[in-house]
Amino acid sequence: MIQVSAFRSVLSIRKMSIQAAKGLPAILQKHPDDVVITFAKRTAMGKTKKGQFKDVPVDEMMQALLKATLAETGLDPRKIDDICVGTCHPPSPAYASRAAALAAGIPHDVPVVSLNRLCASGLMAIRYIAQAIQSREISLGIAIGVENMTLNPRPTPLISEEVGKNLQAHDCIQPMGWTAEMVAQTYRVSRQKQDEFALISHTRASQALARGIFAAEILPVEVRGAVISVDDTVRPGVTVESLAALKPVFPDWGPASTTAGNASGIGDGAALCILTTRERAQKEGMKIIGKWIGSTVVGVEPKYMGIGPIAAIPKVLEQFGLTKEEVDVYEINEAFASQFAYCVEQLSIPMDKINPNGGAIALTHPLGMTGVRQVVTGLAELRRRRGRVLCTSMCVGSGMGAAGIFVNEILPPHSSKL
User: Fold this and answer.
1) How many of the other CB atoms lie within 10 Å of CB of 255?
2) Is 18 in contact with 247 (CB distance < 8 Å)?
3) CA 283 to CA 391: how far, in whole Å?
4) Residue 394 lies in a domain
5) d(CA 412, CA 288)
């Protein structure tokens, strides 16, 4: 009876601490049972059909990333309690993920699971591992986001004729390009405005690539005898004139304002985070680089899929008692310039805080990878800025949005930041 009473007291204390952890001072506090990130890296990304991963299946990409991670961190793979892989389109992803882990040297008694929430799959993989740690089912896990869109392009979704009679059910399986044009049409996002936002992304990414900024977040991987370490997706020299000269890629839909220059690239890549408790990280000498705070997922009208961040970001900020001004960096996925421009304007967030080194329009958007890649990128940028709080968000196919909050834990001594 005493043991049961003590257990209930512990649960009560934990519940109270979780409920009370609202507001900036609260999320910056450090507790032994915090879920922390000890490693966050990505592969370089490859452009579709012609890029450096065009012939490399997702299992081989994961194998390379896991092997490089184990070599870089020195992590004993026997200490891994679970691996969650977010990915969307490869066939048999659960089998491929399990096989990749085994081939990378992960022991057979370490389980693997795959999940698919389309563009939020990577973020959901992080959430899966984080929540498993919070529930004390595990104490150390790896979240992976991976996609090879060259080898596994978006399949045509199929629903029954009966289900398709529902208008929203019909809308939720339409091509993402159609939803981009519906946003542009309904919310009057002009082609000129889309190109202006696209130019910001291209310019920032080109400058970051030239300065070697991405080297801090990329883990070189060896694939088939070649070392891959630099994105081949960025297109230097993009101008207002070159964007304006591009023809629409969806001429039969809406205002036909989406082009290859103002939409996210289709590409290939993988990213990874190692998560554990603060107590374990400190005990085992792991470097803590970030802290998981939490996430949210929302639904929006499928026809306007791209507006998901407009609903998700305020919800996650309210959930943790934060103002938008208290976030130092936002990584908001640029699925299409139409939805991205509209989201930025509706959220009223300064552009200098959003995608400081460019986003998916310039870098590319491997669906399953993006949710992890944005966390890797955002934490790296916070370290450069000496900032604390990252908010990451994306629209999600079929009409959803997701967002997450993370804290940077690498600050220089005597920093004036909270």
Assistant:
1) 17
2) no
3) 29
4) yes
5) 14
Q: Is residue 114 situated within a structural domain? A: no
CA angle, 71 then 75 then 80, to 5°: 125
The residues near 377 (Cβ < 8 Å, ≥ 6 apart) are: 42, 217, 331, 357
pLDDT, one tens digit per residue, over 131-168 is: 999 999 999 999 999 999 999 999 999 999 999 999 99
Strand partners of residue 140 = 276
Residue 218 DSSP one-character state:
B
- pLDDT value at position 8? 45
| Pairing of the two strands 82-86 and 112-115 | parallel
Indicate whether 74 belongs to any domain.
no
| Pairwise CA distance, residues 347 & 362, whole Å | 22
For residue 408, what are its two tokens?
A: 């940077």
For residue 272, what are the β-bridge partners?
41, 144
Q: Which residues in the chain come in under a pLDDT of 50?
A: 1-20, 416-418
Number of compact structural domains in the chain: 1
The CATH number linked to 380 is: 3.40.47.10
Residue 391 — φ and ψ, nearest 5°?
-115, 125
DSSP secondary structure of 351-396: GGGB-TT--HHHH---HHHHHHHHHHHHHHHHHHHT--EEEEEEEE
Alpha-carbon torsion angle 10, 16, 21, 22, nearest 10: 170
Domain housing 317: 164-213+293-405
Tell me what percent of the residues of the chain surpass a pLDDT of 70.
93
CA proximity to 223, closest of 340, 62, 333: 62
Active site residues: 119, 395
Residue holding tokens 């022991």?
Answer: 107
- Rg (the chain; Cα; Å): 21
Q: Which residues contact 285 (CB under 8 A, 6 or more apart)?
A: none
Give domain status of residue 393, yes or no. Answer: yes
Return the pLDDT at 413: 62
- The helix, strand and coil proportions of the chain, stated in percent and rounded to the nearest 5, come to 45, 20, 35
Does pTM top 0.85 for this prediction?
yes
Helix axes 121-134, 367-385, angle to 10 degrees: 70
pLDDT at 12: 45
Strand partners for 143: 84, 273
129, 164, 188: which is closest to 302 by C-alpha? 164
Give the single-character DSSP code of 44.
P
